[in-house]
């Protein structure tokens, strides 16, 4: 995850670089339930409104939670399917909060209602992300349920009314790239604090529909707009958060943007980005699916590292006998193709290995989603 606004702030108000702190354990994205009331075109969990047998029971979830705490996992992102369809979502959330985790909820927003908003507010989630994949019909087509945009936006408003920190999550594809400017306006009009732009990753229906991935030029235009918007708003005193996911090349593209605009700050930003270090799958990001299978990140559902019903997460995560985990944890990673020759490998860390593997069957091949030109991966600074 590339925290654009953090680096944008560094352009305007540089701060001294301190030694990097290595997190003790990864952020865990936890798909508690696979059932969902929507069937989005790009969904990596291939969710639907049906029961998926064999899911972790609430008691099993609590046992895993204790192990995660002992292992020093700092953050739980409760996801699905639609996590608000889990019958015990509030008990699970309360327990996680009481244990001192930073707890975020990843929701499609349609199940946030007048009936449950007080309970949601009382949980005191640190953050709720609601997916908006376009305006009105674009969103409804993408998420394949008519009226889902209005319901999701109602969910956002209910959160805003309760002063809950809520953000928009948008997955960019050919289907909805045209709505990106309008979504930024919606963010502004509604005073929403955070925007997360996710690039398409090739898992589940996202892999089946990968022909709809945004063309490189669309992605570049979207990133340019995001950079300019983030910068303009920050300068105007509106310190909103902009984050991107599933394309660590964004950081390199930003470095080129920053170098053109603020040549005197280029080396500072470069040093900051190198300290961040790019893709963190299998290292600082982990995934547990609804059945208890552990994956290097959420898009590796076709690749199991082990199951928490049989072995504690802490053991599975530290076991590097698995070749994918060994390579992901290696520094530098054993990258091939264009990624191996890229001058900015220590910023991007080889980007998204799932896309490489889904298109070539080779974990370490170049990421076909890298939209940087040949000139942009050569030394410039
Ligand atoms: C799987 S959903 C679960 C939470 C909730 N149902 C929702 O839609 O927000 C979590 C997030 O992953 C995003 N997502 C799903 N499939 C994706 C893919 N193939 N590539 C990138 N993001 C994806 C969704 O848009 C959503 O923002
Ligand atoms: S992306 Fe979210 S809302 Fe859409 S089908 Fe998947 S789990 Fe459901």
Automatic annotation (TrEMBL):
Cofactors demanded by this protein: [4Fe-4S] cluster
InterPro entries given in the database record: 4Fe4S-binding_SPASM_dom (IPR023885), Aldolase_TIM (IPR013785), Elp3/MiaA/NifB-like_rSAM (IPR006638), Heme_synthase-like (IPR034480), HemeD1_Synth_NirJ (IPR023992), PqqE-like (IPR017200), Radical_SAM_PqqE_MftC-like (IPR050377), rSAM (IPR007197)
GO biological process: heme biosynthetic process
Transmembrane feature ranges: none
Taxonomic superkingdom: Bacteria
One Pfam family hit: Radical_SAM
UniProt keyword 4Fe-4S, yes or no: yes
UniProt KW keywords: 4Fe-4S, Iron, Iron-sulfur, Lyase, Metal-binding, S-adenosyl-L-methionine
UniProt xrefs under SMART domains: Elp3
Domain Radical SAM core residue range list: 22-239
Molecular-function GO term, any one: metal ion binding
Family membership noted in the UniProt record: Belongs to the radical SAM superfamily.
UniProt function note: Involved in heme d1 biosynthesis. Radical SAM enzyme that catalyzes the removal of two propionate side chains from the intermediate 12,18-didecarboxysiroheme (DDSH) and may introduce the keto functions on rings A and B, yielding the heme d1 precursor dihydro-heme d1.
Record-given protein name: Pre-heme d1 synthase
Organism: Candidatus Methylobacter favarea
């Amino acid at each position: 995850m590339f925290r654009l606004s953090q680096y944008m702030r560094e352009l305007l108000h540089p701060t001294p670089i301190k030694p990097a702190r290595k997190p003790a354990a990864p952020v865990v994205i936890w798909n508690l339930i696979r059932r969902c009331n929507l069937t989005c075109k790009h969904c990596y969990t291939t969710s639907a409104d049906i029961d998926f047998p064999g899911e972790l029971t609430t008691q099993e979830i609590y046992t895993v939670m204790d192990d995660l705490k002992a292992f020093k996992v700092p953050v739980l992102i409760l996801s699905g399917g639609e996590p608000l369809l889990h019958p015990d979502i509030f008990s699970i959330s309360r327990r996680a909060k009481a244990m001192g985790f930073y707890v975020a909820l990843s929701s499609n927003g349609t199940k946030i209602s007048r009936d449950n908003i007080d309970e949601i507010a009382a949980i005191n989630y640190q953050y709720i992300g609601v997916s908006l994949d376009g305006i009105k019909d674009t969103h409804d087509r993408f998420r394949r349920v008519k009226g889902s945009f209005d319901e999701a936006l109602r969910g956002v408003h209910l959160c805003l009314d309760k002063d809950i920190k809520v953000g928009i999550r948008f997955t960019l594809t050919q289907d909805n790239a045209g709505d990106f400017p309008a979504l930024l306006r919606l963010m502004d009009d509604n005073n929403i604090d955070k925007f997360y732009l996710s690039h398409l990753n090739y898992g589940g229906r996202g892999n089946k529909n990968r022909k709809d991935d945004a063309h490189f030029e669309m992605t570049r235009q979207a990133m340019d707009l995001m950079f300019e918007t983030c910068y303009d708003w920050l300068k105007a005193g509106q310190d909103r958060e902009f984050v991107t996911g599933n394309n660590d090349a964004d950081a390199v593209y930003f470095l080129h943007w920053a170098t053109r605009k603020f040549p005197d700050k280029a080396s500072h930003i470069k040093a900051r980005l190198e300290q961040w270090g790019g893709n963190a799958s299998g290292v600082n990001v982990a995934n547990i699916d609804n059945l208890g299978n552990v994956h290097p990140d959420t898009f590796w559902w076709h690749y199991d590292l082990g199951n928490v019903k049989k072995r504690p997460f802490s053991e599975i995560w530290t076991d590097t006998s698995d070749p994918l985990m060994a390579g992901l944890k290696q520094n530098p990673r054993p990258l091939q193709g264009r990624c191996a020759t890229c001058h900015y490998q220590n910023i991007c860390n080889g980007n998204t290995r799932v896309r490489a593997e889904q298109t070539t069957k080779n974990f370490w091949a170049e990421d076909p989603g890298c939209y940087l030109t040949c000139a942009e991966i050569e030394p410039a600074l």
